[in-house]
């Protein structure tokens, strides 16, 4: 069952999966910093 559930995640874009993973792993206080760092890296 888990393998069938994991396959769609692996097929999905790594950027989208990383975005959904990080908020659950990191505390809410670090989210603004992460977004700021991501915006700075993008620009």
Number of helices: 3
Q: What is the percent of helical residues?
A: over 70%
Order of helices and strands: HHH
Instruction: Count every beta strand, where a strand is a DSSP E run of 2 or more residues.
Output: 0
Overall pLDDT: 65
Rounded to an integer, what's the Rg over CA atoms? 13 Å
User: Helix/strand-derived class?
Assistant: mainly alpha
Domains (count) = 1
Poorly predicted segments? none
Cα-to-Cα separation, first versus last residue: 41 Å
Shape: elongated
Major sheet characteristics: none
Strand content: under 5%
Region (Disordered): 1-24
Would you kindly provide a brief summary of this structure?
Residues 1-24 are annotated as: Disordered. The protein is mainly α and 43 residues long.
Which properties best describe this structure?
3 helices, mainly alpha, elongated, 79% helix, 43 residues
Polypeptide structure, described:
With 43 residues, the protein is mostly helical. It has one domain. Helix content is 79%, strand content 0%. The longest helix is centred in the middle third of the chain and has 12 residues, at 14-25. The mean pLDDT is 65.
């Amino acid at each position: 069952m888990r393998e069938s559930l994991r396959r769609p995640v692996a097929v999905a874009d790594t950027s989208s999966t990383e975005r959904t993973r990080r908020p659950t792993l990191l505390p809410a206080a670090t989210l603004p910093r992460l977004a700021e760092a991501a915006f700075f890296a993008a620009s």
